[in-house]
């Protein structure tokens, strides 16, 4: 678990000084909707450890005696399922003895929940590293990072398991520069699998298409983690994650890195990332060894990783607090607003999508909320912020404005046959593709989008002030 000099305040957290026998809670150092992470002192061995508590805030609250109590009896099944997965994950991690994997010291049940005691890892996540030290990220740095990370992931795969949650904020860079792959997030995923009300967190841009489909369990394999790892590398190289896989089913705007040719990066590395991000699982490297071979890198064993500990560590810059981002209105089905601090969630019913490209995209657009990818190009905002449309091949305003600022965002609409679109009171001619979607390229401004079909009308108000891609399902 990561160190952080700024103690985080979190509702329902145990107070400093609370004791689990020899373990004494000192402060909260992290957490989210499904758990809380503490820094603790082991009085018996006189060392700092980390303790992770299973605490799903949507299902339970902290009682006066500091135990957990359910928000309602109907949550018992979900709570128990998450608890079981949390314990199983602790047992799984305890089997491994790899310096690149979270090392579990022990786990126990108490206070109506479960706890996982792990080694305390100083340093920062890749996400924090990218924010605070972007100039330090280059191909040489990535090539030093990858072998031990490959070794950690390969250890999981060789044991017959998948991680399924590899991302920038799940890879910790220690002060000695060695990476540690953090926990699997099993509890939240199990709760998401069973609940239509509780949201799961498939990180947009990092989850391959097979993870969005309930029928896709048999399609998942090492190539699933390899896609996520490719997304991590894409994010480090370009500062942006790749387009969300579900959006790529509608219109694949992924531009291969070998065509973009980011300065300072070799073609073998860029080609390997492109291969890892192939939409079809069969088109990706099928193992970590195959992926490493594309980059011409070894998969480090434990001994090689440990030997690197002898090298003097480089100092880490102090973490920078991330700005809080405002979530989009829930009626908007998908948006990504360029803020690296946003951790959007994907509702479970999106996972009912079929593997087929067009069918999957259509069902995705009818789900409650999915979050999409960050546009690679940032257009300058017009000074007056006036709502203006920028026409493309599929959209042409009926009354074009005198000036047409550069498009800032792309809005996708699923249209029925014969439906008409009205934008800010003006009809627009749209061409619907074979997949049933029409696209509007819009500049910065405020919009009201109406979809007229027969005697019915659906509308959605929208404010665009940052680059992004939106999937809209206007309401009645």
Automatic annotation (TrEMBL):
Keyword Hydrolase: no
UniProt keyword terms in alphabetical order: ATP-binding, Kinase, Membrane, Nucleotide-binding, Serine/threonine-protein kinase, Transferase, Transmembrane, Transmembrane helix
Protein name (Swiss-Prot/TrEMBL): Serine/threonine protein kinase
Organism of origin: Candidatus Pantoea deserta
Highest rank taxon of the organism: Bacteria
Domain Protein kinase span(s) in chain numbering: 23-300
InterPro entries xrefs: Kinase-like_dom_sf, Prot_kinase_dom, Protein_kinase_ATP_BS
Molecular function GO labels: ATP binding; protein serine/threonine kinase activity
Pfam families xref list: Pkinase (PF00069)
């Amino acid at each position: 678990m990561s160190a952080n000099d700024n103690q985080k305040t979190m509702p329902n957290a145990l107070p400093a000084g609370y004791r689990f026998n020899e373990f004494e809670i000192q402060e909260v150092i992290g957490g989210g909707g499904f758990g809380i992470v503490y820094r603790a002192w082991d009085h018996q061995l006189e060392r700092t450890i980390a303790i992770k508590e299973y605490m799903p805030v949507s299902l339970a609250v902290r009682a006066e005696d500091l135990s957990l109590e359910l928000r309602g009896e109907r949550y018992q099944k979900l709570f128990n399922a998450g608890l079981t997965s949390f314990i199983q994950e602790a047992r799984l991690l305890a089997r491994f003895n790899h310096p690149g994997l979270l090392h579990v010291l022990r786990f126990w049940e108490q206070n109506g929940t479960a706890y996982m005691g792990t080694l305390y890892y100083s340093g920062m996540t890749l996400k924090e590293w990218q924010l605070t030290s972007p100039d330090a990220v280059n191909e040489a740095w990535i090539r030093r990072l990858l072998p031990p990370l490959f070794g950690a992931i390969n250890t999981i795969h060789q044991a017959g398991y998948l991680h399924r949650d590899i991302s920038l904020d799940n890879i910790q860079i220690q002060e000695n520069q060695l990476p540690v792959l953090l926990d699997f997030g099993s509890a939240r995923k199990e709760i998401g699998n069973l609940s239509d009300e509780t949201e799961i967190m498939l990180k947009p841009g990092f989850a391959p298409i097979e993870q969005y489909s309930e029928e896709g369990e048999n399609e998942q394999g090492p190539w699933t983690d390899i896609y996520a790892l490719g997304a991590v590398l894409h994010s480090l190289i370009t500062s942006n994650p790749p387009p969300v896989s579900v959006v790529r089913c509608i219109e694949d705007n992924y531009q291969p890195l070998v065509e973009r040719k980011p300065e300072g990066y070799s073609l073998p590395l860029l080609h390997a990332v492109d291969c890892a991000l192939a939409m079809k699982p069969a088109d990706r490297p099928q193992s970590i060894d195959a992926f490493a071979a594309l980059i011409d890198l070894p998969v480090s064993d434990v001994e090689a990783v440990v030997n690197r500990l002898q090298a003097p560590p480089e100092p880490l810059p102090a973490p920078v607090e991330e700005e809080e981002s405002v979530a989009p209105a829930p009626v908007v089905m998908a948006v990504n607003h360029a803020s690296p601090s946003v951790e959007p969630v994907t509702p479970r019913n999106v996972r009912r999508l079929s593997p087929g490209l067009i069918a999957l995209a259509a069902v995705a657009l009818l789900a409650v909320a999915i979050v999409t990818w960050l546009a690679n190009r940032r257009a300058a905002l017009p000074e007056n912020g006036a709502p203006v449309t920028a026409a493309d091949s599929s959209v042409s305003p009926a009354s074009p404005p005198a000036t047409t600022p550069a498009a800032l965002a792309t809005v996708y609409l699923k249209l029925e046959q014969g439906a008409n679109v009205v934008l800010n009171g003006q009809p627009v001619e749209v061409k619907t593709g074979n997949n049933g979607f029409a696209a509007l390229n819009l500049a910065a401004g405020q919009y009201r989008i109406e979809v007229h079909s027969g005697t019915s009308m659906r509308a959605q108000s929208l404010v665009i002030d940052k680059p992004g891609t939106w999937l809209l399902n206007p309401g009645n």
